Amino acid sequence: xxxxxxxxxxxxxxxxxxxxxxxxxxxxxxxxxxxxxxxxxxxxxxxxxxxxxxxxxxxxxxxxxxxxxxxxxxxxxxxxxxxxxxxxxxxxxxxxxxxxxxxxxxxxxxxxxxxxxxxxxxxxxxxxxxxxxxxxxxxxxxxxxxxxxxxxxxxxxxxxxxxxxxxxxxxxxxxxxxxxxxxxxxxxxxxxxxxxxxxxxxxxxxxxxxxxxxxxxxxxxxxxxxxxxxxxxxxxxxxxxxxxxxxxxxxxxxxxxxxxxxxxxxxxxxxxxxxxxxxxxxxxxxxxxxxxxxxxxxxxxxxxxxxxxxxxxxxxxxxxxxxxxxxxxxxxxxxxxxxxxxxxxxxxxxxxxxxxxxxxxxxxxxxxxxxxxxxxxxxxxxxxxxxxxxxxxxxxxxxxxxxxxxxxxxxxxxxxxxx
Length: 419
Description:
Layout lengths: L8 H24 L2 H22 L5 H19 L3 H8 L15 H15 L6 H11 L5 H8 L3 H17 L10 H22 L3 E2 L5 H17 L4 H15 L24 H17 L6 H14 L8 H14 L3 H14 L2 H10 L11 H12 L3 H14 L1 E2 H13 L2
Parallel strand pairs: 1-2
Helix pairs in contact: 1-2, 1-3, 1-5, 2-3, 6-8, 6-9, 7-8, 9-10, 9-11, 10-11, 11-12, 11-13, 12-13, 13-14, 14-15, 15-16, 16-17, 17-18, 18-19
């Protein structure tokens, strides 16, 4: 049964496909064992919808229609291959039981396939840039042009990353599966890192004229929520979701009326989204409930974000607890960036002098050589110690290192305040 043809058929079909394409690609990839071919077959189903739906109307279950159409094409493709007999034995009844266009697929199968697709697009055999591009394309439903605009890179560069990623997965014979046993934790870490990197690029853009790119934050948060539903017993999955919920809750307060950055200490906390804070609290509780050992890196970061979320003002923040959590995080996942963040918390809990010692000890870290936040934090500490000339030098250097124009103006403004 179908409805009347929509007033804007192309727009309706595009919206439906953007929402359903991850599930369709995942379902087809289980049959063809190749995400590149699966995406092509999903696109074939889209072409079929563009031909039929304007004439016949949108099906009652458009997602099932797209899934069934793509699966039928996958079955035809496999049957045309010379090694059909081996493939038939491998995929079993998936071939003979392919659903008719109006028959909805098993939700449990869809969830399993989505999970396999997540682990495939985030496979460590791919570079970080390739994982991000492929994940946004296949799971986020973004076009190549949209990914290029989000990360301020040329569209051909993104297209090449996606093509090479698909080719690498095929030539390396990466299995379309969820790993188990010892491999699972390492692979899950890659999945979580990709989602976190996508969110961070939207939360504090590394380059360009905009401080925030909300669409990327929304995509990452949606992926994290989907993953939480697919892996309900994984504490770090819930912890990452909690962290992103907390961070996203501040988005409206992080920019001023002209798009300029607003530092945490200057933010109007009444503009923080309390619904997202509540979601973060619930996700963190699920992480605690499913954890059987010491908290993981994302659980510790989420706990830090919760401290900020529960404080009525910057001064009321429990900085001592945050400093302790950063110390635990540094022990769990050592990183110069974590140490730099710990220095900020120590400066608020104990004063700028001990924090400056931590920062100065990081001066020789190769990973921070061109990291603009190192001189930015050092400048803030020097300013609080009354060493204004040195502080100005640090803020100017930080402004030279950042590639984000909004952040550059903020840092030059701070340098100007030093006289």
